[in-house]
Each structure stands twice: as structure tokens, then as C-alpha cells.
Request: fold
Amino acid sequence: MTSAQERCLDMLRRAAHAAGEFLYGMTTYDWVRDMRRERGEIERLFVLVTFGDLLGIPILPPYYTLRLLPYVVPAVNRWKHSLLRERDLTDLAGLIEGIT
Reply:
């Protein structure tokens, strides 16, 4: 291949990648963002239910909490940061029905 052909192929690859990113943004980006937000909320709820006794909210008996400990330890640091993160009204706008 000549260098002109390689440049042409490279430009086509970049254009195809840009078109793919554009279509992704138009079609599924909002879904992915909402699903990630929902997953984070569910994960925070799970950690609260299992380790709520650290905050004084005993929901599950400690025996079950200890059995779940190896699975939750990696998420505890993220959980603490998410609980301590400063929030404003725009964070809660998605939870209010009718506001999008």
C-alpha cells in the first residue's frame, strides 16, 4: 500500500469512529447514564442494608452481614464518598416525577 492509500484508510476509520460515537450519543447515551445512576443508587442501598449497623440502623442480623463482608469491602470506600458528597437540587431533579 502506498502512503496515500494508508492516509485515506486512516481518514475513513476516523470518520467511521466519529459517526459511531455520534450515533451512540443520539441513541443510547442517556440510557447508559441512567442505568449507571440507578446501579449506583442500588449499590448504595445494598451497602446501607448490609452495613447499616455501622451507622446505627440495624436491618440485617450481623451473621448475614459477616457472610457478605468479602463482597462488599471493595464498595465501602465508594459508599463513604457517595454519602459524604455534597448534593444540590439538580441532583434530586431526576427523582421528582415530571421534571426531565
Summary: The chain has one domain: 3-95. Residues 3-27 form the longest helix (25 residues). The mean pLDDT is 80.
